[in-house]
Amino acid sequence: MNNIEFEWEIAELIGCCREGEYWDFKQQWYLHNTDLLHDIICMANSPANRDCYIIIGIEDGTFKVLGVDANNRKNQQKVIDLLRQKPKWAGGHIPEVYVRTIQIEDKELDIIIIKQSDNTPFYLLEDYTKEGTSIFKGAIYTRKGDTNTPKTSTERQ
After folding, report:
1. C-alpha span between 27 and 69 (Å, rounded)
2. In 10 A of CB 33, how many CB atoms?
3. What would the pLDDT profile of 38-57 be if each residue is shown by its tens digit?
4. What percent of the chain has pLDDT over 70?
5. Residues 3 and 113 sit within 8 Å (Cβ to Cβ)
6. Alpha carbons 111 and 9: distance in angstroms, whole number
7. Which stretches of the chain drop beneath a pLDDT of 50?
8. How far apart are CA 12 and CA 6, in angstroms?
9. What's the distance, Cα to Cα, between the start and end of the chain in Å?
10. Runs of H (alpha helix) within the chain
11. Counting Cβ atoms within 10 Å, is residue 71 exposed (0-12), middle (13-18) or buried (19+)?
12. Which residue of 7, 33, 58, 63 is surrounded by the most CB atoms within 10 Å?
């Protein structure tokens, strides 16, 4: 998909004024890596059977394009490092992710693209605890409709 098609698709999703099975909006970059990791796992296990998006720079509730703030901003390498360095993954498979920056309404948005994979479900082999919250080993986190499985209620492998 070229940049114009990708930007058009993201603009269409924003125009829906709702979140969905394969896209989620965030007003700003994550303050806590546990939340970022949880959302990536949920999207990687989405039943949508396609690439999923976390679109950063959209106001909660109003879906207004705000653009990204420099605070806590991560590039692709930092997101990949989080996935590779900290948790141990079942089967040694980690979600494949990319971070792309696009311009909409003259504002920059960051999009975390979580690639569709045949290696699902993605889950951890050990608990990951940071910032006072945990992602539990063996827990299958996923996305149903416009909602992620809560960190505290999951099925365990």
Report:
1. 9
2. 19
3. 999 999 999 999 999 999 99
4. 96
5. no
6. 12
7. none
8. 10
9. 35
10. 3-15, 33-44, 76-85
11. exposed
12. 58
Alpha carbons within 13 angstroms on the beta-carbon side of residue 104 total 29
| Amino acid type, 18 | R
Q: Has this prediction a pTM greater than 0.70?
A: yes
> How many whole angstroms separate alpha carbon 115 and alpha carbon 93?
13
By the 8 A CB rule, do 22 and 51 touch? yes
Dist CA 122 CA 45 (whole Å)? 6
Q: How far apart are CA 82 and CA 74, in angstroms?
A: 10
Supply 14's token pair: 């924003």
Distance set, CA 42 to CA 6, 75, 106, 124 (Å): 22, 20, 30, 12
Cα distance between residue 139 and residue 54, in whole Å: 21
Give the 3-state secondary structure of residue 6: helix
